[in-house]
UniProtKB/TrEMBL annotation:
Keywords: Membrane, Signal, Transmembrane, Transmembrane helix. InterPro entries: Multihaem_cyt_sf, Multiheme_Cytochr_ET. The lineage of its organism: Bacteria, Bacillati, Bacillota, Clostridia, Eubacteriales. This is Seven times multi-haem cytochrome CxxCH. It comes from the Bacteria. The keyword Transmembrane applies. The chain crosses the membrane at residues 6-24. Pfam families: Multi-haem_cyto. The keyword Lyase does not apply. It comes from Desulfosporosinus hippei DSM 8344.
Amino acid sequence: MHSKFYKILLLVGLGSVVGVILLLQMYRFAVGPQGVEISFPTLSQVSLTSSPENAQCIECHQNESPGILDQYHDGKHSQRGVQCLDCHKPLEGQEKMTTVHYEVQMVAAPTPNNYAQCHDEAVHEFSISAHAAKSWYPVVGAEDFTKEELAKYHLLGEDGKPLNNGKPNVIRDVIGKDASALSCEACHGIGKKNDDGSFGDCRACHLGHDFSIEQARQPETCGQCHLGPDHPQMEIYNESAHGTYYAANKEKFNLGAPTGTLTTKDFPSPTCTTCHMSGIGDIEPTHNVSERLKWNLAPPIATIRADGRQNRQTMESICLNCHAQGTIDEHMTQAEKIIDLTNENVRKGQSIVNELRTIGLLPGSTMSTPIEYLEFELWHHEGRRARFGAIMSGADYVNWHGIYEQEKALVEIKAEAEEMKKD
């Protein structure tokens, strides 16, 4: 009797184990992150519960563009039941963007207005950041903006007129629209104006259809745009102690930690988002990448932002998770001396070039003589590099790519000006 009972108990136990294994495998192949690795079409939580239109989206794209579905099944949207048309369904004001795709009305490229249905706070923070309208303005000037938008996004000068006289960055005119489309606009398009009146593209950082927070937190994602001769934050980060630690210990980072819960255990060294966006300690997360910055380092003459001193306190609260206040104060004091030096050098170069214009030795059109390129790069390249290097601890960019290059350029500008005066 006991033997029979134990046999039944053993069979029930084995059956339970097998059942659990089968359930785990079903999860793995259906909605788990490994589901995309199998060879036959996968089913997400969405496809199991979706409307006929959404089911058709999944069925068709599984055959026509499976890469999209692979990413989608791997992401949290799919796992949490967010359906295709939750993002791609047209909203009021998106009539110009709406197309009929297999008898279904949709917007091919959702805008922040679509995402605001679920992420309204993040969209608002993004909209007032330098990644939105302020990013788009330099490549198009005022032509894409209404008067109300220029005022709303602080694109008017103290005189009430559009910044830079409403013109795009001078280099955009030098290289032309075709070159700009695949260069300047490729990065500044993160803030491009959409046909529904919104500005920006969330997919610039949350790439693909998985919209991974882990991906957005990696420095390499920011490095898509923040690199090169005029804003080499990626290169500076890589040579800094922060970047070196990250590169050597990437496996220690919990890049997928839930928003608002980050500690130094998750991020033992900061990535770009740790300092500029993430919530850590008592600091709340934000999608406004300018919210923690004291200085505006990009213009010819670097200036302190309107809320700059308060912003610095917020940034230092993040630094204090790893550094002593004395260390922070010493670094920032030295960095601001470099910023002042770059401003001084830029003013010297501007003074020489402006004198040549005043006495009529420079033509009316800009960027048509060597000395104008030297003066432009004095701030747009060398000045910025030294400033970013100083703040982010990139010694090579402070000196050899920064102050040294400025000093060299000033010698060349002076010599060029003297030759022009002789002629």
